[in-house]
Design brief:
alpha+beta, six-stranded mixed beta sheet, 7 helices, elongated
């Protein structure tokens, strides 16, 4: 099965699994405070003995419209706590860190934190005294194709054997060998964000993780960039990750909004993979809303067979009048298969009832005005844009 068909099958299985659990809210529905994305700029950071770059992390936060019934829920962001892990053990180990996570400074108002690769370079030294434990983790996670890491394990085992099972004299040479592997192959660092919302009495917290690759970037192996896109409705631009002007979608209850994303030039980059084979990035969009129903959770560049047209569109079906607020927020994120991510939020506004309902005495078939885009003031930051219309 080729890569395209594998992707199609995986997306189909995911959709089937969600459909089977129809009693639960779909992943695309925002019914509580959530971290819906973390953007790293850049997703590929220069990292070598001679030079270390800096990455800026931006949190996209979402908060649903207040429910008509029941408790109000947390209404403002109380704190954003950032940490970084130089060696994350992955989902199988509940994202545990092999070394202590390091706290980072972040700005609560903007949701932004920065990290200097020079700190990572120094952090590598933390592995030295932990090499015996580190080797154990390495043996559980390394792949056969990782020649360098496999050699580190073999060197360690040989050293321990020569020293009668005592590993003390193996720590320094083992660490230097591992450090050389990390610098040569690059290192995926995991950033951990804990966001806490509050209503003044009750707090709600959520965790999210973002991987960023630190590696040696050259002309032959250029840095990956975050993919970008614009979003249109009825052929009118609503928003764009290129900081383009934004508009609000104006619609009546029960109408269907067709969402039309378009990739910006260069969004799908060509690169050479670890085997030396040329590749074109696979990208997909994840859709979220706090009101109504999305037609699908994801849209992507996957096709049933090569040459088929790519369909990135989606549809948002609005609820009946009793369940539709005057305004609400929705979100869409784009990801590539090399850790790149960007996203935007957009606002949906409800038309006046007089426009959406047939006037008294009207005979025949009443057709409400078509969905349209109306201009609004541009929003500068992802977290600020998420606060529009009752989101945080």
């Amino acid at each position: 099965m080729n890569r395209t068909m594998q992707t199609v099958c995986l997306l189909a299985l995911a959709a089937t699994a969600i459909a089977c659990g129809s009693a639960f809210s779909p992943q695309s529905f925002i019914d509580k405070p959530r971290i819906v994305g973390i953007r790293a700029d850049p997703p590929d950071v220069q990292f070598s003995d001679a030079e270390q770059g800096t990455v800026t992390l931006t949190a996209f936060l979402a908060l649903p419209v207040l429910p008509k019934d029941g408790p109000a829920g947390p209404r403002e962001v109380k704190s954003l706590d950032w940490t970084m892990c130089v060696l994350n053990l992955g989902s199988a180990a509940s994202y545990a860190c092999a070394v202590p996570e390091m706290p980072m400074d972040g700005d609560l108002a903007t949701g932004i934190a920065t990290f200097d690769g020079a700190v990572l370079h120094a952090q590598l030294e933390l592995i030295r005294p932990l090499m015996p434990k580190f080797i154990g983790f390495l043996k559980q996670t390394v792949t056969q194709s990782d020649v360098c890491q496999s050699a580190v394990i073999a060197q360690w085992d040989a050293c321990v054997a020569v020293n009668g099972g005592v590993d003390t004299s193996c720590i320094d040479p083992g660490f230097e060998a591992e450090k050389a592997c990390i610098l040569a192959a690059g290192q995926e660092v995991t950033f951990h964000l804990t966001a806490t919302w509050t209503d003044g009495t009750t707090d709600h917290s959520e965790d999210a993780y973002k991987k960023v690759r630190f590696r040696t970037i050259t002309a032959q192996s250029p840095a990956n960039r975050n993919p970008g896109f614009t979003l249109a409705v009825a052929q009118a631009r609503v928003a764009g990750t290129d900081a383009s002007p934004v508009g609000a979608v104006l619609a009546c209850p029960k109408q269907v909004i067709k969402l039309e994303p378009a990739l910006l030039p260069g969004a799908r980059e060509n690169y050479v993979d670890a085997t030396g084979a040329p590749q074109e990035e696979f990208v997909f969009l994840s859709w979220y809303t706090s009101v109504g129903d999305m037609d699908r959770l994801k849209s992507s560049t996957a096709t049933a067979k090569p040459g088929d047209p790519i369909d990135l569109t989606n549809k948002l079906t609005l609820p009946i009048a009793a369940d539709m607020p005057d305004t609400f927020q929705a979100w869409v994120f784009i990801r590539d298969d090399r850790l790149g991510l960007d996203g935007l939020s957009y606002e949906v506004r409800r038309r006046a009832d007089a426009e959406c309902v047939a006037p008294a005495g009207f005979k025949g078939t009443f057709t409400p005005p078509a969905v349209e885009v109306v201009p609004i003031t541009p929003v500068n930051t992802p977290t600020a844009s998420a606060r529009e219309g009752g989101a945080a």
